[in-house]
Design goal:
Length: 410
């Protein structure tokens, strides 16, 4: 049965729409991860403190608090093709500007952080539309496989992107990594315009963005025990354990006296773990209850954060990050599958908006708070405290999964 499920899942890649979308997303994600390696290292080389590193991550994620629910309403009410094309095009200009500033020698930490804020704003408005692409181009019984395959490309890019960034930063400098990031937007924008169903007219008016409607979306999502448990699981992971990756450059530079090559290796190891986790999900039977996987692998990820904080030998760190990437990917992908499967089609955009609010908002707040505690306690102690708190949070959240899962809707 697992082999049959695995073959059926891979068969999605042979379909024209999903296969093209998957490949363009891979190129886009490679560029994103090349920038994710280059940006914190660039900030540290410009003299930025750990707090500014956390502030940069916060600036990229903070807009979700104000705008992701608006993005969810856009996904439910507007032409998603136009939403993605507009905001991704604006986002593409940000790494392009950094390349120009690097070439002219005018780049400053505050400029990088400001551009991260712009990226965060455009992401918050477009990501709910992006997240609804897979449910729009696959059948309901293929949803879990589609999400797992999408997670596979994202984690494959976590291997390829850092590797490319490491090579470019060691040869032509950080500008090369940001140039790759800028170029990677174009194929995705073109494919998104083609792959999404045409004919969905925008029907936006003042009522579409009324705060009551957005609040109603939150209430409807969180009132369902299945969707609420998924959201809380992702929130705990993002808030408390995702800062591991944000502050890995600080850990490597201060704790191991490493260089950018060590950082790209560490991020690549995390991506390898994510790829293994996403691939393993392809063999999971679509009828299996994913609640235990989401919760207990969230706990395991938190344990690995503590072990990484206590690690004193660098070459243990990539091994720990492989396992951490595996646990995080399976936990988040299972939560996402449960959320999208339980949400009615007319609520999916807002459900994704709440999911992004938990994930991106949690990462941003967690990075800002961890940046402050790193300055007070040191990077190892701060990550250790985060890991312990995450273990306790996940054990409490497990109780929300006791309600029997509802039958998933198409």
């Amino acid at each position: 049965m697992p082999q049959s499920t695995f073959r059926e899942s891979l068969g999605l890649l042979a379909t024209r729409r999903f296969g093209t979308f998957w490949f363009s997303s891979l190129l886009s994600s490679i560029g994103t991860w090349a920038q994710q390696v280059a940006e914190p290292w660039l900030l540290l080389s410009l003299g930025a403190s750990p707090f500014l590193l956390g502030l940069d991550s916060f600036a990229m994620g903070a807009p979700v608090f104000l705008l992701t629910l608006v993005g969810g309403a856009l996904a439910d009410n507007a032409d998603r093709r136009h939403v993605i094309a507009l905001f991704q095009s604006i986002q593409m200009l940000c790494p392009t500007l950094i390349v120009v500033l690097l070439w002219t020698g005018l780049v400053q930490p505050w400029v990088v952080i400001t551009l991260s804020l712009i990226v965060g704003i455009t992401d918050a408005l477009s990501m709910p539309s992006f997240q609804t692409i897979v449910p729009s181009i696959v059948r309901s019984d293929q949803l879990a496989a589609g999400i797992a395959l999408n997670s596979t490309q994202f984690n494959l890019s976590r291997i390829l992107g850092p590797a490319i960034a490491g090579i470019l930063m060691s040869s032509v400098g950080a500008a090369g990594a940001f140039a790759v990031s800028a170029a990677s937007y174009l194929p995705f924008i073109l494919v998104a315009l083609w792959v999404l169903p045409r004919g969905s007219k925008a029907r936006l008016d003042a009522h579409s963005f009324h705060i009551r409607e957005l609040g109603q979306g939150i209430r409807e999502v969180t009132a369902d025990p299945l969707m609420r448990g998924a959201i809380l699981t992702v929130l705990a992971t993002s808030l408390l354990t995702s800062p591991l990756i944000t502050f890995t450059p600080v850990l490597i530079k201060e704790g191991f006296q490493g260089a950018v090559g060590h950082f790209s290796l560490a991020v690549g190891a995390f991506g390898l773990g994510g790829l293994l986790g996403a691939t393993a999900l392809l063999a999971v039977d679509r009828g299996r209850d994913r609640r235990p996987l989401a919760s207990w692998l969230g706990v395991s990820y938190a344990v690995l954060v503590v072990l990484a904080a206590l690690d004193r030998w660098f070459w243990w760190l990539p091994a720990l990050l492989v396992l951490a990437g595996l646990c995080m990917t399976i936990s988040n992908a299972c939560a996402n599958t449960l959320l999208l499967g339980a949400a009615q089609p007319g609520l999916r955009g807002r459900a994704v908006g709440v999911y992004m609010l938990a994930m991106r908002g949690g990462i941003s707040v967690g990075s800002l708070l961890t940046g402050a505690t790193v300055g007070l306690l040191g990077v190892r102690t701060a990550l250790c405290v985060n890991g312990v708190l995450a273990i306790l949070a996940h054990l409490l959240i497990v109780r929300t999964w006791r309600t029997p899962p509802r039958k998933q809707r198409a």
